[in-house]
Amino acid sequence: MIEGYELELYEPGCAPGASVYSARAHIDNDVSEVMPYLNAVLDRPLYGENNQFIVWEEGDRGYALRPHELAVSMILDRKQAREVLDKTIAEINDIWERRSEITPDYSKKTKPRILDILKRLPLTNCGDCGLPSCMAFAAQLAQGNRQSKDCLPLLEEESTEALRVLKEMGL
Ligand code: SF4
């Protein structure tokens, strides 16, 4: 799938002047076809329909694959950029090699907005989830740091519909 690339190291727009960089691998061929297989295999990726992009996280590092580009964040120097990009590309190529064993997932996945989550919560700010407010819990849900079952009032009968919607959102 990916054989070679041209490396670019750049300062992330969100942190100009920082001592960490982002790395970009410019890829000659179009790698869109592997995205539905990555979407099926990766943990909680964001996937744009029509193979526009797929974005995922591992540890502190973020990854974004577009048709002709793989970008990786939290990079210290060119040597590390090569190591991380080469490892990630090997993993992507492995998934492509194994595609006959994987059911591709074409469903669009985007991060739910905090307000869309918040309006499904009980809004009592009871603190049972260990957080000071439903807003704080909604933010943690959106980040994938909590699950809807961590809000005990949501498990009560009158919240069945709200819980169903949150589950549909992958929360
Ligand atoms: S347990 Fe649920 S209702 Fe209570 S503060 Fe947390 S999110 Fe809000």
What does this structure look like?
The structure is a single chain. This protein has 171 residues and is of the alpha+beta class. The chain has two domains: 6-101, 2-Layer Sandwich (TATA-Binding Protein), CATH 3.30.310; 114-168, Orthogonal Bundle (3-methyladenine DNA Glycosylase II, Chain A, domain 3). Helices cover 30% and strands 18% of the residues. The chain has five helices and six strands; from the N terminus they run E-E-H-E-E-E-E-H-H-H-H. The protein has helices at residues 35-41, 78-97, 114-118, 134-143, 160-168, and strands at 6-10, 21-26, 46-47, 54-58, 61-66, 69-75. The chain has a six-stranded antiparallel beta sheet with strand order 1-2-6-5-4-3, with helices on one face. Strand 4 (54-58) and strand 5 form a beta hairpin. The radius of gyration is 19 Å and the shape is elongated. It starts with 5 loop residues before the first strand and ends with a helix. The mean pLDDT is 88. It binds iron/sulfur cluster (SF4). Iron/sulfur cluster (SF4) binds next to helix 4.
